[in-house]
Amino acid sequence: MKPVKKTQAGFLKKYNFTFMKKILFSLLIGSAFTVSAQETTMSDALRYGIQNLNGTARYRAMGGAFGAIGGDLSAINNNPAGSSIFNYNQATISLSSFNKSNTASYFGTNSKTNENSLDINQLGAVFVFNDSQSKSGWKKFALGLNYENANNFDDFIVSEGTNLYNSMDSYFLRFANGNNGVGNLGGTYYDELNFIEQQAWLGYNSYMLDYDSAGDNYYTNVPTGGNYFHKNTIQAKGYNGKFTMNFSGAYEDRLYVGMNMNFHFTDYLRTSSLYESNLNAFYDEYYSIDTARFNNELYTYGSGFSMNFGAIYKANQNIRIGLAYETPTWYRLNDELTQTVSSYYNYTNPTTLVSTMDQAFANPNAVNVYPTYKIQTPSKLTSSATVLFGKKGLLSVDYISKNYANTQFKPTKEIIYSTLNTQIKNELQDNYELRIGGEYKIKQWSVRGGYRFEQSPYKVKTAFGDVTSYSSGLGYNFGNSKLDISYTNENRERTEALLTSGLNDTARIKNKNNNVTLTYVVNF
Which domains are delineated in the chain? Predict the structure, then answer.
């Protein structure tokens, strides 16, 4: 028999808190940290380790294969020596239209969504200093300043279908009964609890869970038997921007060397809402959940730093080879999390057997502000080669190696991050990326095309698949200025968890990105 709740926490189900506060959880040392922080996952690190192909229209049209070409402001991200290829001072601005299409498959039901955005994704200038009288052989130097939207986080995904096995109650039960349980939360306030206890509090105060004092554990009020209709809506907004200071020099117009200092900054907002409708019969007595909704809003912001070093060697007038190294990016990030749960439940009086429907709210009106943490993304090595066909055109290839198993959360001594880092080493791999680009000139016109393939960072790529991308573009040279346009199509498949843990059933997402970029270039 299920006990009737008569606690302060039970009262709070019917009435929201009237206060609004921010809760700052102090870091504790050792294993205590595992109950102080939000539930961080590998996807949080990959969000910053994986960078989409962005930049100028010419760069995008040729698949980003610019490691040995240079002469483009986005190319300095591949190889910083490329700024010494410029013959004139140059300024560039790029406007991009992003279209993301997602088809989510969840227990046989397909749902399609689209997200569109418009952004000035690149802005920069390069200044060239020539010294033809130099006796040292170093006759050209360049200084480049460039901003790029390294990653556009805007996204919209809807996954819906009838789960034949599991309810969202498994998420709350995992925290409530994990590590020998959290004890009875009746009469406790949300702001007195750590993250694990908060999840149990949300489940209890939304009537999804009840507490058995005799067994000292929580049990579900969701009728068992499978057949739970789920609709999960994810709306993401934000960007990962990068400002680059570039320095390079040319030796005898044959060897070009350079370096970048990259300043990264990120702003990311992810709102998710999981709705569940129970298709099973209610319990004969006490509480039975009919529908529930679990809302999460995660806001992440912070900054990072990285460096690039590179060289381009002109073997002859037609062949160039390039080699570049990018250090890891060291991020310092901050998270803020807001959560609410609401439900409609049926209550059957065990004496009169009279049933009534009512609504419960677990809404603490609080924002959890967590301590700053660090993510180190992997370094990158790029090898490049370009063949020039006089002044008519070129063909270029870049091969990029990046070991995602070297991704790290810090401080590494904290148990939660140590566990994540071990998982990263076990599940992620050293991947490669191949870029191929070509250009052909017809008087003032340039015709361009590109191909890009990036291997999955996962050893088992079901979670996050390979990327295949095709691109094309046109350019027109007015003399002292140019106008370029490109189109890029990119495809990738991945799985998307409805919740970070407990409810382990995932939706399969087929993602298609279509991008149109317009770039104006002026020499001065």
Answer: 8-523 (2.40.160.60)
